[in-house]
């Protein structure tokens, strides 16, 4: 082989055009990268589209649907699905489709509000615990440990039962009368779910605060004074927010499920307003004869939960800094 | 002297979703009985993958695509998994880099040490336990009876590495492969571990294949050195030859970038600029060319074969071709073509 | 090890103390007291209550009395059923629920763990996709929906299994309720086991085990499994809690007269003593279970010493 090579090739290379220390492709910001990865995750995108569709339907369809959720239409009792009533009607002649739409509204609102309350309490509790540290942190986390070993659902039930009357009274006598249309029982659920499930969030927030506290750039930023907060906002938030967003997103289907569960036991929202869970619960008794009454609300519960779970999983993968390519 | 290991034209690649990464591209290694050979190179040069190929432990998505590996005359690549299991830990054993993670945290050290003894030597528990205690003594762990019942997290890094060596020693292997055994340890512990390996090699007449990126530790333990770069061997020879008469620009670079005790204070450490080539698309010419000060046109077009400098010393560099200009003063500040 | 156990016991005691106290004060926070209702109570019950609870006493005295009763194991008379005490009802219902619960735990672990292991070992192949698909369904389909589907398919249409399971005296009655109850936990454990296993087989010590020439079977089942199962053990506590709350719905759907069913009925009827008593009873069971899980955990993982608080 060597004889084939011309002797003239044995001279040093003149102009070196090689780029020795080439830098790879330019890097994206954290959020751009996350969004790109999320977009590529097909199941997560399907989940996102599903939820957006569901929310839009739940908000807008009732405005131009001919029936209201409480309308009992004589002569239309217990009908199987038809063009006029796409989901059929129940034993009182109420159109199931619109009831499912309203049910979706209620279930979604429960999911959102409860999760936000969780978020608030969790952020406050975890934030303080992590930031103050020391003995305070120790005690606060012990309390969290205790709460973890308690069956929280039991306490949801307990709280429901206990706070029923006070909330009712509060509604009658105070400024909250304005919200009466929403229903005191709904508010009750918001509060109860929010009050009980903040524990997870607190832990995550505390963990984030702790790890950030120890980062050197916080020290460096503090040393610089005024510009400290801007730097902290640019670095702290992206790192901390990721797991928090994921936890909130995954808390929503959890809240929806819990509410459906409570309705099934009989302590959810009360008639004639119905969440998806209440609809399912009512339909259960007669489901052998009228399976569609149970089928539609149940499907919607499932779809909502699956969609949120997919979004949550997708967000978790997208926001995980370790997976940046 | 008889050959313990003979690797012929080994090619190992990783078939990833971005393509085939050619980690080992035609490697030949000979190891004789009782000798210690050092394989030196930077991260990613293929030295670890070579050792894993010998053991048959190349992780997915890696595959050995070509070559033969003769161990005492038998081609390991033709053996079934069951046959390889009889060889691993028994006739060829391996010590890994990070002692902190290489031991199973939920089992006692004794348990893990006794395992290869029971599996390969088919002795009962009592006898195995006795031998395990002897092994711990051999690697210099004090109070071995008590230590057997302890868990890995109760040992320090250096002690754990000794345990790893004990495990590798358990069945008196003919060849011990040590992949960066001291990299994760403090310098003083490093020295102890190397001493231990030297001692064991003598006692058991065991061949050692020492893989490292640190030239310093090779000098003491190994009689021969193989330098790898980008999946191929670019120089090999006795330790003396490599340290005092290196012929490949990469080896020059390695030697210049290592601080030495007897260095005159005026000499600067010279790092080798640049990065190793992307093994997804290996270059057609010499892989070191982009970083080489002495690169010639021919280096860009053709990859050099191994030129013999002496009976034991070979280097893959076009500079060794009779047609190439001579190079002066590689170990001085100023270098030039003559 | 001994210190660890004592530490856990103290935690347990403190937790129980809090639970009982909170429950007590919650009940008494209801305006008008827990013992007033819209419909007047039957005479017999009012009499029993007054005797028992000395409702005119100041609240701290009621609290102490309550503790005295609890320590004796007395949870008070039921509201809704005259001549029944809470203890009676629990004694009637709990054995049945316990059978359901135990069967579910066994089912969950026996099926969920292997599912996860197989999925991890055959990552990317059809076994992995199928099991993970089933698991994904399991975590997102609520238990009552699953129960309904099972009842419809297997009970009504195919008629293989009974639609209502009575007191769980025959094996065939267990099948559907156990599957419905375990659905979520089983899927969760399968996914947890899978991700844990995937993580563990990439660890250096697994490579070491292979390098020692151990058979693949030994590498997986001795070295990998013991490490991989640790997160699953940690989950057993919440698992038990989940099964317990799940039993409320499952017992109702399958007409099983267990404690869950009594509890739900008592909630509907606002039977306060029953609600309180059941809550405390459940809590005690779960706290004890968590304690047992903690002990198992430390037996498996020797790295745990006294640091018991889980850092975030």
Descriptive tags:
heterotrimer; A: 11 helices; C: 312 residues; mainly alpha; 12 helices; 75% helix; flat; disordered C terminus
Can you describe what's shown?
- The complex is a heterotrimer of chains A (325), B (338) and C (312).
- With 325 residues, chain A is an all-alpha fold.
- Chain A is built from 11 helices and no strands.
- Chain A has helices spanning 30-40, 42-64, 96-132, 134-148, 152-173, 184-196, 199-213, 216-224, 228-265, 276-285, 291-319.
- The radius of gyration of chain A is 28 Å and the shape is flat.
- The two termini of chain A are 42 Å apart.
- The relative contact order of chain A is 0.14.
- Chain B is α/β, with parallel strands linked by helices.
- The model of chain B has no long low-confidence stretch (mean pLDDT 87).
- In chain B, the strands form 3 sheets. In chain B, strands 6-7-8-3-9-10-12-11 form an 8-stranded mixed β-sheet, sandwiched between helices. A 4-stranded antiparallel β-sheet of chain B has the order 2-1-4-5, with helices on one face.
- Chain B has helices spanning 47-55, 81-87, 109-121, 125-138, 144-148, 157-169, 187-204, 215-221, 239-244, 249-256, 297-301; strands at 3-16, 19-32, 36-40, 62-71, 74-75, 92-95, 175-179, 207-212, 224-229, 232-238, 307-308, 314-315, 327-328, 336-337.
- The longest helix of chain B has 18 residues, at 187-204.
- Chain C contains 12 helices and no strands.
- Chain C has 312 residues and is mostly helical.
- Chain C has helices spanning 2-28, 43-53, 59-72, 86-121, 126-140, 143-157, 171-201, 204-211, 216-228, 230-253, 259-268, 272-300.
- Residues 306-312 of chain C have low confidence and may be disordered.
- The interface between A and C is large, with 50 and 48 residues.
């Amino acid at each position: 082989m060597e004889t084939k090579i011309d002797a003239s090739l044995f001279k040093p290379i003149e102009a070196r055009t090689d780029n020795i220390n080439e830098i790879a492709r330019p890097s994206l910001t954290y959020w751009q990268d996350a969004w790109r990865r999320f977009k590529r995750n097909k199941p997560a995108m399907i989940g996102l589209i599903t939820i957006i569709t569901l929310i839009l339907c739940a908000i807008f369809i009732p405005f131009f649907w001919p029936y209201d959720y409480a309308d009992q239409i004589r002569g239309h009792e217990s009908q199987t699905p038809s063009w006029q009533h796409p989901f059929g009607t129940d034993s009182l002649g109420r159109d199931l489709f619109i009831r499912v739409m309203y049910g979706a509204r209620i279930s979604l609102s429960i999911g959102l509000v409860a999760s936000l309350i969780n978020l608030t309490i969790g952020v406050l509790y975890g934030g303080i615990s992590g930031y103050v540290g020391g003995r305070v942190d120790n005690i606060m986390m012990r309390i969290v440990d205790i709460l973890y070993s308690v069956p929280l659902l039991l306490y949801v039930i307990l709280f429901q039962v206990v706070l029923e009357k006070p909330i009712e009274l509060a509604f009658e006598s105070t400024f909250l009368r304005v919200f009466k249309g929403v229903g005191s029982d709904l508010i009750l659920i918001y509060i109860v779910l929010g009050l009980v499930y903040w524990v997870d969030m607190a832990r995550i927030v505390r963990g984030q605060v702790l790890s950030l506290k120890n980062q050197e750039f916080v020290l460096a930023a503090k040393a610089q004074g005024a510009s400290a907060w801007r730097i902290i906002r640019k670095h702290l938030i992206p790192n901390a927010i990721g797991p928090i967003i994921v936890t909130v997103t995954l808390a929503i289907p959890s809240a929806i499920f819990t509410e459906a569960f409570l309705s099934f036991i009989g302590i959810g929202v009360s008639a004639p307003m119905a969440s998806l869970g209440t609809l399912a619960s009512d339909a259960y008794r007669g489901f052998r004869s009228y399976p569609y009454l149970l089928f539609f609300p149940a499907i919607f519960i499932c779809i909502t939960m699956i969609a949120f779970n997919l979004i949550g999983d997708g967000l978790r993968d997208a926001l995980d800094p370790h997976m940046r390519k | 002297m008889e050959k313990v290991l003979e690797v012929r034209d080994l090619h190992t690649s990783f078939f990833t979703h971005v393509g085939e990464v050619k980690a080992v591209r035609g490697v030949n290694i000979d190891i004789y009985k009782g000798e210690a050979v050092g394989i030196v190179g930077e991260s990613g040069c293929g030295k670890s993958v070579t050792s894993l190929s010998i053991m048959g432990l190349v992780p997915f998505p890696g595959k050995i695509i070509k070559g033969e590996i003769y161990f005492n005359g038998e081609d390991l690549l033709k053996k079934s998994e069951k046959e390889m299991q009889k060889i691993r830990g028994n006739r060829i054993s391996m010590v890994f880099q990070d002692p902190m993670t290489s031991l199973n945290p939920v089992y006692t050290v004794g348990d893990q040490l006794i395992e290869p003894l029971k599996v390969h030597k088919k002795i009962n528990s009592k006898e195995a336990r006795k031998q395990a205690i002897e092994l711990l003594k051999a690697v210099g762990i004090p109070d071995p009876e008590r230590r057997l019942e302890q868990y890995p997290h109760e040992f320090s890094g250096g002690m754990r590495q000794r345990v790893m060596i004990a495990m590798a020693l358990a069945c008196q292997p003919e060849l011990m492969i040590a992949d960066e055994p001291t990299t994760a340890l403090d310098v003083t512990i490093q020295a102890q571990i190397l001493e231990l390996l030297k001692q064991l090699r003598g006692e058991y007449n065991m061949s050692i294949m020492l893989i490292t990126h640190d030239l310093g530790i090779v000098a003491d333990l190994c009689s021969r050195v193989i330098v790898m770069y980008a999946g191929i061997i670019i120089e090999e020879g006795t330790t003396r030859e490599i340290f005092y008469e290196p012929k490949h620009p990469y080896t020059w670079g390695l030697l210049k970038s290592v601080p030495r005790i007897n260095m005159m204070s005026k000499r600067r450490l010279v790092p080798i600029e640049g990065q190793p080539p992307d093994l997804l698309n290996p270059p057609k010419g010499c892989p070191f060319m982009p970083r080489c000060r002495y690169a010639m046109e021919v280096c860009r077009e053709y990859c050099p074969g191994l030129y013999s400098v002496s009976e034991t010393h070979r280097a893959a560099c076009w500079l060794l071709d009779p047609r190439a200009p001579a190079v002066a003063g590689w170990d001085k500040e100023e270098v030039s073509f003559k | 090890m001994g210190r660890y156990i004592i530490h856990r016991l103290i935690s347990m005691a403190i937790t129980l103390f809090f639970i009982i106290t909170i429950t007590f004060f919650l009940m008494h926070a209801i305006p008008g007291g827990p013992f007033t209702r819209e419909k007047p109570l039957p005479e017999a019950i009012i009499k029993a209550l007054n005797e028992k609870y000395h409702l005119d006493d100041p609240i701290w005295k009621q609290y102490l009395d309550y503790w005295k009763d609890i320590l004796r194991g007395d949870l008070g008379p039921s509201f809704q059923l005259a001549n029944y005490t809470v203890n009676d009802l629990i004694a009637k219902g709990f054995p049945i629920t316990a059978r359901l619960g135990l069967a579910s735990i066994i089912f969950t672990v026996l099926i969920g763990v292997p599912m996860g292991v197989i999925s991890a070992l055959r990552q990317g192949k059809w076994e992995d996709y199928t099991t993970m698909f089933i698991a994904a369904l399991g975590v997102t389909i609520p238990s009552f929906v699953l129960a309904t589907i099972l009842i419809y398919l297997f009970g009504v249409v195919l008629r293989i299994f009974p639609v209502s399971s009575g007191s769980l005296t025959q094996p065939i009655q267990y099948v559907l309720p156990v599957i419905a109850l375990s659905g979520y936990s089983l899927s969760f454990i399968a996914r947890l086991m899978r991700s844990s296993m995937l993580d563990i087989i990439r660890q250096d010590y697994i490579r070491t085990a292979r390098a020692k020439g151990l058979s693949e079977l030994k590498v997986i089942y001795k070295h990998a499994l013991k490490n991989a199962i640790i997160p699953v053990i940690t989950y057993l506590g919440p698992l038990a809690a989940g099964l317990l709350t799940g039993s409320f719905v499952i017992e109702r759907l399958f007409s099983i007269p267990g404690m869950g069913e009594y509890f739900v009925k008592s909630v509907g009827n606002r039977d306060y003593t029953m609600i309180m008593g059941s809550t405390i009873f459940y809590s005690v069971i779960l706290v004890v279970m968590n304690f047992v899980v903690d002990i198992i955990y430390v037996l498996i993982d020797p790295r745990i010493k006294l640091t018991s608080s889980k850092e975030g």
